[in-house]
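Review box. Two proteins, two foldings.
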Amino acid sequence: MGKISSKEVTMALLAILALALWIFGGKFIDATMAAMVVISLMIITSVVTWDDILANRAAWNVLVWFATLVAMADGLNKVGFVKWFATNMAGLMAGLTPISIMLLLVLVFFFIHYFFASLTAHTTAVLPVILAAGAAIPGIPVKIFAMILCYSLGIMGILTPYATGPSPVYFGSGYINRKDFWRLGLIFGLIYLAVLMGIGIPYLMSVQL
């Protein structure tokens, strides 16, 4: 590919600057502002041009609809929909065995992620509600229940094209169309969840015993 150009060196330095600001600059600069600063410097130093940025249709597409979904998820939380939904689901499980209730609450916690465009928002809004609902039911192994809820956060990111921050980037690459992304997300989400609950819960309970 030839020798490293001055623009490539500049790009590498700006990438390091962005990482440094994201890791160490939280006290004096917002993460989004750090990204804007670096992008502005990329334009000023001619690493990219404004036309290059305007021409990146996939990036603009991700920005617009992902930002909208994040705002909608935040709105659902602010109006109390998430708490209402989780509380009512927990109430419908009265009369079941503690293990059955635990499994159903994990399912609710997992699939309610369809309403969220961020794992952080999902965790903040739903985890305390579901955990409190489970802890209030006698017989549920709270420690194991909490661990399974946390483990499920690591696998629910495949459900939708907006499930996590990187998801829109993967979807925007164009290798998987929208229909297949949703279909495969559900299929593999169910597989991963089945493995987590079918193997993970018995293992954790045996270790605890």
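Next protein.
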Amino acid sequence: MRIAYDHQIFGLQRHGGISRYFAELVENLQRVPGVHTSVVAPVYVNEYLLRAEVRGRVRGRHWPLKFRGSPRVVATLNSLLLPLSWGGKAFDVVHETYYSLAHRGRSRVRVLTIYDMIHELFPREFPDAEQVTQAKRAAAARADHIICISETTRRDAVKLLGIPAEKCSVIYLGCTLAAASAASPRPRFPRPYMLYVGNRNEYKNFGVLIGAFAESAYLRQHFDVVAFGGPGFTPAEREKLQQAGIAAQAHHVQGDDALLQAHYAGAAAFVYPSRYEGFGIPPLEAMANDCPVACSTAGSISEVVGDAGAYFDPDDAAGLAASLERLVQDEAYGADLRAKGKQRIQLYSWSKCAAETLTTYQRLAAATSGG
């Protein structure tokens, strides 16, 4: 079976959940006898494609992001080089990695993955929401099949885009981040800390964690707040931290996976307060590092986390404060969450994701050939 993945996400992300998903598919599927994978990306910025296990499958060259205009240059080069890179060759399956009005490549089967519906549910947070939705509709219409990364995403896609339910299936993602080792760097903060990971868009709801500290003198007295990844604190966030009385004990950190592992392993708890997620890999990363998870009840989070989380309403700062206080004060409760997390993480692997994806490809290809 010949499978091709297009350039889209690899020209947009140096690192990120979506590009990691496709890099893992390529790496796992290339080990299957009779399966040949290709990434058709004439010019790409993504660093997962530089991994030894993947690089040989890429039709293109890496472009280091060295100046502000790089994304435009990459997009322009790809638009010129894509016809030559595809070369008129037909594949059994073309899997589009993001959403676009136009498509590339010839195949018997075209597959699309839908990750979430944040642009449709929170359009005011995204200046390009209308364009993304338009492209998503076009990509979904031309796809022979749509993979959704959770039942929540499948249900929302059917409802908001009008996609026929029978055209969609659910395949869960895996978790790449392993447990921190003795050689991992060690975070150093004045006190134990609560960890937040990722960007802090409004729907990600970082403010409710600040609010939980404002509600709890116990948390303010005994814990720091660490935000890993994303941009530095904005002036508005700094003002909220000041008002909550924790400006001096809030820290922003950026770094690689090794440093992230170490921060999970050293945290008193990982807090995931989002108002919506299409899947949610960070709670799984926390579980892999024996870090108890406090998470909101929104979106797909409870679907993925199951019984391994301390839940709170995403709009209830006092409820989050109570959950965190119990988690760190009740040793038996914290130990139970850690044990359940170790069990839960076993449900999600990239090898399982790749195997289920390949089964989907094979079923679709057989249907088109009458087999």
